[in-house]
What does this fold into?
Amino acid sequence: RLDVVSFRNNNGRKRAETSKKPTDPETVHSDVLAKVEFNSGGNRGQVTALLAYQGLAWNLREHLMERMIATQNLWREKDPKFVYYLSAEFLMGRSLLNTIQNLELYEPYAQALKMLGYNLETLAEKERDASLGNGGLGRLAACFLDAMATMNLPGWGYGIRYKYGMFKQIIKDGEQMEVPDVWLTDGNPWEVRRPDVVFPVSFGGKLKKTVTGSHELVEWIPDEQVIAMAYDVPIPGFNTQNTGNLRLWESLPVNEFDLDAFNKGDILSAYNEKGRAEAITSVLYPNDSTPEGKALRLKQQYFFVSASLQDVLARFKKVHGNQFDLLPEKACFQLNDTHPTIGIAEMVHLLVDKEGLDWEAAWGITTKVFAFTNHTIMPEALEKWPVKVMREFLPRHMEIIETIDTQWQAFLEEKLSEMPKAEKQAAIDRMAIVHPNQWNKEEMLVNMAHLAVVGSHTVNGVAQIHSDIIKSTIFKDFHGVFPLKFQNKTNGVTPRRWLVFSNTDLATLITEALGTQEWMTNCKLLEGLKPFAEDAEFRKKWSAVKRKNKERLGAKIRELTGDDVDTSSMFDIQIKRIHEYKRQFLNVLSVIRRYNTIKAMTPEERKSVVPRVCVIAGKAASSYERAKDIIRLVGAVGDTINTDPEVRDLLRLYFLPDYNVSLAEVIIPAADLSQHISTAGTEASGTSNMKFQMNGSLILGTMDGANIEIAEEIAAIQGPDAKVGDGLFIFGVDAKDVPKLRKERKEFKTDPRWDEIMDMIKKGTFGNDKFEALVDSVNDMTVGNDWFLLANDFATYLDVQDEVDAMWKNQDEWVRRSILYTASSGKFSSDRTISQYAEEIWDVQPLAVA
Ligand code: F58
It folds into this structure.
């Protein structure tokens, strides 16, 4: 731990202390005891682990609040331009260690805890993850908040305080079961409830119109109203006093209960309103396959966006009164995917209906303050709301959207006036915001992505290839009209959580080598590790750290599965949401192939096999049957392999349950190899690939998403002779060939090894299931037609797996590469991403508390 302290002392740089709170171990100890006693009524003599955790957290929250208030005071005084990151998801994970380390208070807090009889790391595990997100998109939002705070950028996150976050995944008899994530039972010491910050949010009802002269006044008379109450979650920056804020909204009834009904003796319906109001923020993304589910999701989106915009406008008006033309100089709203897009209509509604601006002025302001990020081209994820649903819940907004659409189409008429008539009309139809459902022409839909593109000044993808693809596919026509609107912002991840705090030994070694901890906020400095890749002594230390991290993961595997694994084996990892396009199935096929190969070997031949421990983890959406089949297959194949005495010393396969941020923090630092094997053109970016690279895990992947840019950086650090792909294990078809290959898949001649494995699965070799639907999805052209081209990539995938084995046998080279991975990972810090957003989209400048 001493080494770790050395990078906590801020390089001797002095900085102004705004914090008055003493932080010596004795004071912290007595402070924590006071919290235990006064906040939770605990007994000083019997501080349970939970009480100790809570006491500590409450104490830390005071530090955070002090800093947050100083930050907000400065920002209020200077009135800089702010960015508001609107996101239905923030996948924050745990806060305790992240806070302590960001505030550079590790030593006194660890000591204070020792006095209480606890170890800080052990205690940290008492905290429930804040899992207010599904996957990459939600975690990206969390990394962005970290970067914004660290870089002193004036900005807040705005989202939903779900009572139940991402479900807990339990595996029962090989099958995924979803259990509600009851994360708030013990309270949440990291948030501050703000009963003073409340806004009404309305739904339903009808419109009343009065015409005076040429002016039409529209009044929305809703038939349902709830209250949005704020919770503030302070976001510590690293190596700065600045502390950001994530404001999450909870939905409450306007009246605790209906007194009328109560008095009439109808006790049950007296509580109805309460239940209905609270349902809005109760669960993260409820199943949207039923109309009720759909309606609730739209309500969630409108709920948090409306509260956020009202909040921002209220603060703006305090300073600038009604000078709304100044708004674009003071505020920018980043839409994290289409989920908050209804904000575009809400802004028009607030400016026109509430503030009395005329349409042109309101629309002009609106298009100057919104910017939109797209995260996927998967059609099922591109939100389209039935006009019927939208009109029922948001009649005024539906009307506003129709007006926007009419004006948009009129604009296109003019803009495309050179085009032949039929062609022009087709283009206009393709770009319409409100259009018929392609499967049911009777039904009209609001295309939220189209609304977002029309209403925003900038549209960006999340990796270069993805930004290029959206310009030539889903937004092709729009790109033709507004070429300059489109940008790329390659994703990034916070090196603090994903390297410095989750892999402290590696961070210490890096700091020792570079002689500074500057790299933690200036990741390009990691390039300084390059010469160390050639230093045998350093490589030894590097391997020792990896080995220790593998011991830690080994212990976790034992805890979760009861099995011991050999930590000298290669740890081969694939962790991400389970989805057909991410191709966990392909991974399992190669594990089966490996199993077959080992089975066919003589004992002598087996001596040359590279032992592997394969780990897969991730959640499947509750209604996604094919993804759930994949989980069952991993379990069944794992059971066969892990209990086979001829094979289990050379190969293991585990599915680790309940993948979340905290589990990722243990897995990633321990990976030797990580797999990012989506069909080229399907994964927008990926972000775990960046986390693995930072932690020196070699990458086996396709030329997809950010893998491509990772490969470019790894090539660049090797010098001018290296080609993109050198140093990684790359395989698979090219994104540009995918459409053609899909058409030709029927004629594709599958590899004999593929056929053999399919037969094995179908025969019921693994468990008592034959996985028919799953097998058909990649073989039977009448059912599944192998949309993600597993068969096409199968043979090259096996070849590249052989290359992996060969490379592993040359450990010097393997470790050399591992060091070069970390050395070349600087680009993928979220600090870089955020500074590009700040400069190229938001026009927001840092403002640091002195
Ligand atoms: C992910 N999207 C992309 N969506 O798949 C990934 O390539 C990218 O790196 C990441 O965003 C960040 O840009 C993603 O995570 C979701 O989780 C949706 C949320 C709403 C429900 C459907 C899934």
About this structure: The radius of gyration is 28 Å. DSSP finds 34 helices and 24 strands in the chain. The mean pLDDT is 95.
